[in-house]
UniProtKB/TrEMBL annotation, chain A:
Residues 25-313 form the FAE domain. It comes from Raphanus sativus (Radish). The lineage of its organism: Eukaryota, Viridiplantae, Streptophyta, Embryophyta, Tracheophyta. Its EC number is 2.3.1.-. Pathway: Lipid metabolism; fatty acid biosynthesis. The active site is at 168, 247, 341, 345, 374, 378. Gene3D superfamilies: 3.40.47.10. The keyword Magnesium does not apply. It is an enzyme of class 2 (transferase). It comes from the Eukaryota. This is 3-ketoacyl-CoA synthase.
UniProtKB/TrEMBL annotation, chain B:
Its main location: membrane. One of its GO terms (biological process) is fatty acid biosynthetic process. Its EC number is 2.3.1.-. Gene3D superfamilies: 3.40.47.10. GO terms for molecular function: fatty acid elongase activity. The keyword Kinase does not apply. It comes from Raphanus sativus (Radish). This is 3-ketoacyl-CoA synthase. It catalyses: a very-long-chain acyl-CoA + malonyl-CoA + H(+) = a very-long-chain 3-oxoacyl-CoA + CO2 + CoA. Pfam families: ACP_syn_III_C, FAE1_CUT1_RppA. Residues 387-467 form the Beta-ketoacyl-[acyl-carrier-protein] synthase III C-terminal domain.
């Protein structure tokens, strides 16, 4: 009898211990951002609108219409005078890049950022357990991840993944991989390195849909340290709340919206279709449908459902919709109830405007994205981190705030995630923030392009035969 | 790796039986311990007689409450145990791509093309001929259509059509074999080292098969011939987190854009060895799949030697002096592969070797440290841990080197050699062709353990251990179906061309 009691009590205590351990282990599955470091290339790589014009003019295949189109695009793109380009553009070699150019462009980026990141956090490269590298347009052997491991002499048993061709949304995909690894393995430190390689991707033809990509992208990159170690969670900056990925590759029009292919003469470029905005909107709407219930409070969802029902009962279609509204329907739901800050991929002025309209955001909310587009341009997958850096530099991030990251990518994908700020983030601590040197000048009084006047004349120039742009512009 | 040199009398039969006995003792230690205990209990029971046993039973006061509580606790413990166990990851089935006969490149065709393309460089042509003679490749390996042109036409469109041909055929076969609906795929991982267009190959697959919009897709590239096992690693990590999911892995290498057009010797080598191929693999963690799955994943170990400069530069893509891009293979490749394998074995050994081998290794280690450093280190016998070996068919030299290092017999490496002969070096998918060979030969029985080893640029050595879940009947279709009866063939050292 006594033996039975003793055995049963042992059993019960063991069971309780096991249950407690399982609940406790859930705490180790959180994904925290410990720190991140964006890349600010050296000032000799700055490219102004004037210089962009010069680079475009070097392309001898283009005619008047294409020049007009491009200059108009640059001037109204929302990109400012201080964005960065790869070195070979300054040497006039953009039409004949070598592989070494692409590799040195990446080396400049990762040697600078990873070193600063590790030094600031007093970590050594051998502490890193997981490495995920995503650079969409560079494919080399050995992979970029192997190059980083070789340079920093990382451990042999490191878990490494090298993603390519996943477009501007690859940052969120890398975070997804890390999040899943953190659920299975405890006490790990992960490094996500994200960038874009521009050196080998200059299109030197004259196909309209392909030349636009030449002007939009700029150099930049970011390295992010993530961890699920409980001892570091006090020092962490952000905690991942949820992550949703939507892939519309099944639809023909979405898949063909952004394709890398050869033009009629065999030159490789990225074709951006006219249906790209629609594809982006569709993907965005689908993504919102999944993530909204996870991030907004129940009261707001309830209110939204009620308003939908009322609208249906009244049978009231929206009147007087503008062009923007047709492209991006209004969500009708107040995101500010669950989200405090919006990190929008700086794909271009149109993208930011469309998202701002559909989510009903104010200028204050869109300011970080607009300023990032102005200062750093469209740095592809890493743009989200520059936007985050702006918010941090402006001291907007307080403990408990929620940040919503939205990104788009070729294929067509829309990936988004929500981070919760773990502690008040003040500028004094983030010595590595790329905005530190210039944050006081933002937002400037006007972000209208200073060359609007200078290149405005091209809108009037119509005669192909007497077109002598070189003398005029130079 | 240093060889074991045992003294003369080890070759005698007696010692072999001693070793066998020792192995048996150590491996089944716990069960051997249980036998005397059970014997004692049985003797006690016999001694007590039936009435005494009944008395003991009655004195235990079995209340209904007690009975119910104990049953409840037993059920509770077992359910907690089953829930907290890491999910078993199954390999349900896989399909390898069999190229059409029109893509075959017999030696004569290859040499003729080589002479026509490199007509002003006879030394390079001769070099390629020498490589081909000693390569271990057969006459039925295949190159994609674009490479058959003279000169080859490696445009992006051709590369995409090769990708579509190899990937979609393999996936169609897989869907038919497993009765899987495209809508049921939750995870998609595509690895192709040298070709990554935008949108990615994973987006291309999603587009073709109209996969779901909430699919988790990943596109790995640049990771070399070991990328297949890296994809399996990622799939396993994802399947641990997402219950009741299906994962499809597509491993391939697209040859079209990577044909080296220059004449640098070390960079002409990949032209001679790499051939087209691909594999599509279905993995899942559904409990219902445990009856139909072919294999269970036991272990997967990854080793990255990138920190060592010599290893890092041994497979390096670079431009030659004329600006042609190609992959430079260093002369130290074999030695570096051996080092990487040693590092990988150090981790995987304790996970798979039987206790007896581990004990012997430990004893020899202690002996070397304490008694006499001159003792040769004991190399554990991996043939005791695995029944089948799938060594990446990187080239004849790799297979020879590994056979020597691991002390494997000809039959163990037969799958690798025959895959190299029939399909060439198909990069990350070669491991699956080899596994298919073993199955087609009818050698795969339930409970057999398979060790897949792959090397990749960087330098990586990844290995996976699978346990066969059910005896596999000789497949009627598959890449080996029309030629398995001709194999194994004898591959001479040098095939005179």
């Amino acid at each position: 009898m006594d033996l039975l009691c003793v055995l049963s009590s042992l059993l019960i205590s063991y069971l309780i211990f096991k249950i407690w351990k399982r609940i406790d282990s859930k705490r180790d599955q959180n994904c925290y951002i410990l720190d991140y470091q964006c890349h600010k290339p050296s000032d000799d790589r700055m490219v102004s609108t004037q210089f962009s014009g010069e680079i475009i003019l070097r392309n001898k295949h283009m005619r008047l219409n294409e020049y007009k189109f491009l200059l108009k695009a640059i001037v109204s793109s929302g990109i400012g005078e201080q964005t960065y380009a790869p070195r070979l553009f300054f040497e006039g070699r953009e039409e004949c890049p070598t592989q070494q150019d692409a590799l040195s462009e990446m080396e400049e980026f990762y040697i600078d950022t990873i070193k600063k990141l590790l030094e600031r956090n007093k970590l050594s490269p051998s502490d890193i357990d997981v490495l995920v590298v995503n650079v969409a347009m560079l494919n080399s052997t050995p992979s970029l991840s192997a190059r980083i491991i070789n340079h920093y002499k990382m451990r042999e048993d490191i878990k490494v993944f090298n993603l390519t061709a996943m477009g501007c949304s690859a940052s969120v995909i890398s975070v997804d991989i890390v999040k899943n690894i953190f659920k299975t393995y405890k006490n790990k430190l992960a490094l996500v390195v994200t960038s874009e390689s521009l050196s080998q991707n200059w299109y030197n033809g004259n196909n309209r849909s392909m030349i636009l990509a030449n002007c939009l992208f700029r150099s930049g990159g970011c390295a992010v340290l993530l961890t699920n170690k409980r001892c570091l969670s006090g020092r962490a900056m952000f905690k991942l709340k949820c992550l949703v990925r939507t892939h519309h590759g099944a639809r023909e029009d979405s898949y063909n919206a952004c394709v890398q292919k050869e033009d009629e003469l065999g030159r490789v470029g990225i074709h951006l279709d006219k249906t790209l905005p629609k594809a982006a909107t569709r993907a965005f709407v689908d993504n919102l449908k999944v993530i909204t219930p996870k991030i907004l409070p129940v009261t707001e969802l309830f209110r939204f459902v009620l308003s939908l029902l009322l609208k249906k009962l009244r049978g009231n279609p929206s009147k007087g919709s503008t062009a923007v509204a047709q492209a991006a329907p209004k969500a009708g739901i107040n995101f500010k109830t669950g989200i405090d800050h919006f990190c929008i991929h700086t794909g271009g002025k149109a993208v930011i405007d469309a998202i701002g309209y559909s989510l009903d955001l104010s200028e204050y909310d869109l300011e970080p994205a607009r300023m990032t587009l102005h200062r750093f341009g469209n740095t592809s997958a890493s743009s989200l981190w520059y936007v985050l850096g702006y918010m941090e530099a402006k001291k907007r991030l307080r403990r408990g705030d929620r940040v919503f990251m939205i990104s788009f990518g070729a294929g067509f994908k829309c990936n988004s995630c929500v981070w919760e700020v773990v502690r008040d983030l003040n500028v004094g601590e983030s010595l590595g923030n790329v905005w530190n040197h210039c944050i006081d000048q933002y937002p400037p009084k006007s972000i209208v392009n200073p060359f609007l006047e200078k290149y405005g004349w091209i809108r009037e120039e119509d005669d192909h035969d007497t077109f002598k742009i070189r003398e005029e512009a130079m | 790796m240093p060889r074991e040199q045992m003294p003369e009398f080890s070759s005698s039969v007696k010692l072999k039986y001693v070793k066998l006995g020792f192995q048996y003792l150590v491996d089944h230690f716990l069960s051997l311990l249980l036998i005397p205990i059970m014997a004692i209990i049985a003797i006690e029971l016999l001694r007590m007689g039936p009435e005494e046993i009944l008395n003991v039973w009655k004195s235990l006061h079995f209340d209904l409450v007690y009975l119910l509580c104990s049953c409840f606790f037993v059920i509770f413990i077992s359910s907690v145990y089953f829930i907290s166990k890491p999910r078993t990851v199954y390999l349900v089935d896989y399909c390898c791509y069999k190229p059409p006969v029109s893509c075959r490149v017999p030696f004569a065709t290859f040499m003729e093309h080589s002479r026509l393309i490199l007509n002003d460089k006879p030394k390079s042509v001769e070099f390629q001929m020498r490589i081909l003679e000693r390569s271990g490749l057969g006459e039925e390996t295949c190159l994609p259509p674009a490479i058959h042109y003279i000169p080859p036409t490696p445009t992006m469109d051709e590369a995409r059509s090769e990708a579509q041909m190899v990937i979609f055929t393999a996936m169609d076969d897989l869907f038919k074999k497993t009765d899987l609906m495209p809508k049921d795929i939750d995870i998609l991982i595509v690895n192709c080292s040298l070709f990554s267009p935008t949108p990615s190959l994973s987006a291309m697959v999603i587009n073709k098969y109209k996969l779901r919009s909430n699919i988790k897709s990943f596109n790995l590239s640049g990771m070399g011939c070991s990328a297949g096992l890296i994809s399996v690693d990622l799939a396993r990590d994802l399947l641990q987190v997402h219950p009741n999911s299906n994962a499809i892995i597509v491993s391939t290498e697209i040859i079209t854009p990577n044909y080296y057009k220059g004449n640098e010797r070390a960079m002409l080598l990949p032209n001679c060895l790499f051939r087209m191929g691909s594999a599509a693999i279905l993995m899942s963690n559904h409990r219902s799949d445990r009856w139909r799955a072919k294999y269970k994943l036991s272990h997967l170990v990854r080793t990255h030697r990138g920190a060592d400069d010599k290893s890092y530069y041994c497979v390096y893509e670079q431009e030659d002096k004329d600006g042609n891009i190609g992959i430079n293979l260093s002369k130290d490749l074999m030695a570096i592969a051996g080092e990487a394998l040693k590092a990988n074995i150090t981790t995987i050994g304790p996970l798979v070797l039987p206790a007896s081998e581990q004990l012997l290794f430990l004893l020899s280690l202690i002996g070397r440290k304490i008694f006499n450093p001159k003792w040769k280190p004991y190399i554990p016998d991996f043939k005791l841990a695995f029944e089948h070996f799938c060594i990446h068919a990187g080239g004849r030299a790799v297979i020879d080197e590994l056979q020597k290092n691991l002390q494997l017999s000809g039959e163990h490496v037969e799958a690798s050699r025959m895959t190299l002969h029939r399909f060439g070096n198909t990069s990350s998918s070669s491991l699956w062709y080899e596994l298919s060979y073993i199955e087609s030969k009818g050698r795969m029985r339930r409970g057999d353990r398979v060790w897949q080893i792959a090397f990749g640029s960087g330098f990586k050595c990844n290995s996976a251990v699978w346990k066969c879940n059910r005896t596999i009947k000789t497949p009627k279709d598959g890449p080996w179906s029309d030629c398995i009866d001709r194999y194994p063939v004898f591959i001479p050292e040098v095939v005179k061309l």
